[in-house]
Design goal:
Order of helices and strands: HHHHHHHHHHHHHHHHHHHHH
Structural class: mainly alpha
Radius of gyration: 23 Å
Shape: globular
Helix content: over 70%
Number of helices: 21
Distance between the termini: 18 Å
Number of strands: 0
């Protein structure tokens, strides 16, 4: 049987617990995808209430605060968030203890997080005036300082677990914290706390997440007296590796937020609220793609640690088959249902954001390929290449800024999508000079054809009868059309059915394979 990914065998007890086979990688991907689905479902319900409980201006304030959060995380990161997963997985692949890398990263992160939070609290009035053109939100920013500490530590510990291959833990913790966050946000809003209640909910959810991550990380870290001194000596090496990533992260931050920053600077907060709702809906697609890519990171890291480059090349081809089958219909499906999604998700007052969502979703087709290549430049230590790719994407975005005058918010979405496509293309180009890259072209064409047929069916149905409440009907019609076309084109075979069996077990797999696999 030809497996989804080539096996990475191990004889050392230290790494047995993270041995990654085809089914384990797939299950890990499922855990993270389920986390995103459940978190998204909770978030959709939460946002549906939130968008009706607060004003568009306050929704714009939330977008501005999120921008500030991202800035803080970027400043204190120093490239360690990305590199720690590589260091940990590579240590495991080599049969080494990864504790020193973990302690080194925390030794650096804690004082930086405290310094950033203190700065926000001290200069809250100035920040409020700069972001929102009023000091009325200075008290909100003081609360943000507390949450900033939590959000500076959690991503680091999350990536430690990612490097260890503990994807189930990551998924459970993520779902739990999101549920806690939205539960308390809703309770505070119902009791009239308004925007302050939203921040209280964030703090409670993020505190719960940090506690779970700390406990799980401590179980996998061998703490001893000499470890701190040894870890401090390791810092210069980690920083040398991470610094190009840090510069790239800063550029990525500017690239990721320039659209919202432009709206914040030149347009009313209401416009930022509309754009933020559309981008939040698109983020669902991004998070699913990120989950698929994250599931492969520990596999790639361990394979690289053992110099098994052939396994990585084979994994790219095999993994991309499944990412195309999953992401193509999700991307075009979201584009086709953008209007009912926006209006049902956030309310009629945000209907103007549906062209933004549709545009972003069309460019989201790139996520059919990108998860299979996720983090490979990092794994191969190509930090300067990562920097170059991000610089080029930002440069493209800047050259396209004049179109914003004519296209407005949709123009911003077009610029964002074009730079996403360029970033992926450049990444694949540079990777091809390091490892052999091959894509299942037959699957790509069949998946794209099936997705286009699905999209036509959904758009035709909306043309005949449109109502935002019919969104479940549109989804059902699209899913039926895609499944039928997939079966007709025989895109899945017995080997795929075997993988489904390894993941879901005998009974469940029989039902799934009857639906998705053409019987011979």
């Amino acid at each position: 049987m030809k497996s989804f990914l080539p096996e990475i065998s191990t004889a050392k007890s230290l790494t047995e617990e993270v041995e990654l086979s085809a089914s384990k990688v797939a299950v890990g991907s499922i855990y993270l995808t389920l986390q995103n689905i459940l978190s998204t479902l909770i978030g959709v319900l939460g946002y549906a209430y939130l968008s009706r409980a607060i004003t568009q201006e306050e929704m714009g304030v939330i977008a501005g605060i999120t921008l500030l959060y991202s800035l803080i995380q970027t400043v204190v990161d120093l490239g360690i968030n990305s590199s720690i997963a590589k260091f940990v997985s590579e240590d495991i692949g080599k049969g080494l203890d990864h504790s020193m890398h973990v302690v080194s990263a925390l030794t650096l992160r804690l004082p930086l997080a405290l310094a950033a939070a203190s700065s926000i609290a001290i200069f809250s009035q100035n920040l409020s005036e700069a972001l929102f053109k009023t000091t009325a939100y200075s008290n909100i920013l003081t609360l943000i300082a507390i949450d900033a500490i939590l959000l500076s530590i959690s991503p680091l510990l999350n990536n430690v677990l990612l490097g260890c291959g503990k994807l189930k833990n990551i998924a459970v913790y993520g779902i739990s914290s999101v549920a806690a966050r939205w539960l308390f946000i809703t309770l505070f809003l119902l009791n009239g706390y308004g925007l302050t209640g939203v921040i209280y909910g964030w703090i409670i959810g993020d505190t719960a997440l940090l506690i779970m991550l700390v406990i799980s990380t401590l179980k996998r870290t061998n703490l001893k007296r000499s470890l701190l001194n040894e870890s401090v000596r390791l810092l210069p090496q980690m920083l040398r590796f991470s610094m190009p990533i840090y510069i790239s992260t800063i550029i990525s931050f500017l690239y990721a937020w320039y659209d919202k920053a432009l709206i914040l600077a030149f347009l009313p907060l209401e416009q930022l609220g509309i754009y933020n709702i559309a981008y939040t809906a698109f983020s669902v697609l991004m998070s699913i793609a990120a989950s698929l890519g994250s599931a492969l990171l520990p596999y790639y890291g361990i394979a690289y640690g053992r110099n098994n480059h052939k396994a990585i090349s084979e994994a790219i081809k095999r993994a991309s088959k499944y990412t195309m089958l999953i992401m193509f219909p999700l991307a075009l499906g979201l584009a086709a249902t953008a209007k009912p999604v926006i209006t049902l998700f956030a309310g009629q007052q945000y209907e103007a954001g549906w062209p933004v969502l549709a545009t972003l979703a069309l460019f989201g087709l790139v996520y059919g390929f990108s998860p299979a290549f996720s983090n490979l430049l990092l794994i191969y230590g190509k930090t300067k290449t990562i920097l170059l790719v991000n610089l080029t994407s930002v440069a493209l975005s800047l050259t396209m800024l004049p179109t914003l005058r004519f296209l407005g918010l949709t123009g911003l979405a077009t610029v964002r999508g074009a730079s996403l496509l360029l970033s992926f293309t450049l990444s694949v180009y540079f990777l091809s000079k390091t490892i052999k890259i091959e894509i299942d072209r037959q699957t790509a064409w069949k998946a794209l054809a099936s997705t286009i047929i699905m999209t036509i069916a959904v758009l035709a149905t909306q043309k005949i009868t449109y109502n935002k409440l019919f969104l479940p009907l549109y989804i059902a019609i699209g899913a039926t059309a895609y499944t039928a076309t997939t079966r007709a084109l025989k895109m899945l075979n017995k080997e795929d059915a075997q993988l489904v069996k390894e993941i879901f077990g005998e009974k469940t797999s029989k039902l799934i394979t009857k639906i998705i696999v053409q019987q011979h």
